[in-house]
Design a protein that fits this description.
This protein is α+β, with helices and mostly antiparallel strands. Helices cover about 35% and strands about 25% of the residues. The protein has ten helices and 17 strands.
């Protein structure tokens, strides 16, 4: 801004010693940011250097690196004034204009500024500005060569949630495996006690076969779900015809539909194609059709149709079944969640079918939506990116966005 002007201060007016006077009163104009205004009655102080001039520069290399890091990032001056902040940091409410909103983070910056040693700290704080939500953060602070302080902040909420889901999954699997194993043990004891009664032996042997089949299905679903969570379907991707996919799913469930006296109806056909793992896509569609059959009354219909809208293929599976209550719709895709546990045991469900559907859709860049009304029926819709023969891909390239936000040198105040 150039050299700061020297000011004389008296009790009633501020007179610029280097500028002309207009009459008996000084010209009124905004004060430059480099001038420290003194309150009335205070003694004059030496000139104060520009705050902006004291702030360290942020190297361009640092800015480019921060733009691709998944962590929220903040660069501050030694006094804690924010020089740059990522959009993630702003979304978490960690920065308000040019100030840190979390006092624990501000104190961490102060300690690093004092001795120059890098530090890492986990903290649990209330999310600004309302403070109604708790944030679990891992904050790493280090001094840059220019004198600025770099903060990298990870939100641990997702990590903790994944850990909790993993623990619940292990507990649920153990419980689900215990039920058929216990049933098999009891049935085996009953068969031994009724060895002299061929009719009873035959009856309990059939029950054992049912429980063994249920156990086998559960183990297979657990294996499939684990593979979906750790596998990239695009490594074995191929162009898959939607019409062929539906026809194949009908073939695999036709026997089940006949035993439940449910008619399978094929809706409108398209020549659309998807790019993905054929086996995973078939599993997802088969699970939806199977659920539609087993939760539908006799002498009803299950219809499957496909349409293309705005570059997305929608495969809708509609039934005339018992429907799903509204308060359960948000949870039906959770692992082992059942709307009616007693009915699920009767149908032989494992509670993993819809979780597998959700992961298949996620792996292929799509989603599964549901509409349902009790005693009317449900419609599950697979929404997947359509394959474009001209580009040879189902996905448009996305431009990498630089999410670093800079603040003015004067802090924007």
């Amino acid at each position: 801004m150039g050299k700061c002007l020297e000011f004389q201060v008296n009790a009633r007016q501020i007179v610029c010693s280097s500028g002309p006077l207009l009459g008996s009163e000084p010209a009124l104009r905004p004060y430059p940011s480099c001038v420290a205004l003194l309150r009335r009655g205070e003694a004059a102080q030496p000139p104060v250097a520009s705050t902006a001039a004291l702030r360290p520069a942020v190297p361009d290399e640092v800015i480019r690196v921060l733009s691709v890091l998944p962590s929220a990032s903040i660069v501050t001056a030694p006094d804690g004034a924010v020089l740059r902040a990522s959009s993630r940091a702003l979304a978490l409410g960690l920065v308000n204009r040019s100030a840190l909103t979390i006092s624990d983070i501000a104190r961490l910056v102060e300690r690093v500024s004092d001795d120059g040693n890098a530090r890492e700290q986990e903290m649990r704080v209330r999310r600004p500005p309302l403070g109604r939500e708790l944030l679990e953060l891992r904050v790493r602070a280090a001094a840059l060569g220019t004198g600025a302080i770099l903060l990298l902040i990870d939100d641990l909420a997702e990590e903790r949630r994944v850990d909790a889901v993993r623990r619940d999954f292990v507990a649920n699997v153990s419980h689900e495996l215990k039920t058929p194993v216990g049933a098999l043990s009891l049935l085996a004891e009953t068969v031994l006690s009724a060895a002299d009664d061929p009719e009873q032996v035959r009856h309990f042997a059939e029950r054992m076969q049912m429980e063994a089949s249920r156990l086998s299905s559960l183990i297979q679903d657990v294996i499939d779900l684990s593979r979906l969570q750790s596998d990239d379907p695009m490594t074995r991707a191929e162009v898959v015809s939607v019409d062929e996919l539906i026809s194949r799913a009908f073939e695999e469930v036709r026997t089940l539909a006949t035993s439940h006296e449910v008619e399978l109806v094929r809706g409108g056909q398209t020549d659309a194609e998807v790019y993905g793992d054929r086996g995973q896509l078939l599993t997802a569609l088969r699970n939806l059709v199977t659920n539609a059959i087993v939760y539908s009354p006799d002498n009803t219909r299950v219809a499957v149709s496909s349409t293309v809208k705005s570059g997305l293929i929608e495969i809708a599976v509609k039934d005339q079944g018992i429907g799903i209550p509204g308060h359960d719709l948000d949870r039906i895709f959770e692992r082992f969640y059942r709307v009616d546990p007693a009915r699920s045991r009767g149908t032989g469900g494992t509670g993993l079918g819809l979780a597998i559907v959700k992961h298949v859709c996620h792996n292929h860049g799509g989603e599964c939506t549901v509409w349902s009304e009790v005693n009317t029926g449900s419609t599950f819709t697979l929404r997947l990116p359509a394959y474009d023969p001209q580009t040879g891909s189902a996905r448009e390239p996305e431009e990498l966005e630089m999410d670093i936000v800079s603040f003015p040198d004067d802090g924007g105040l």
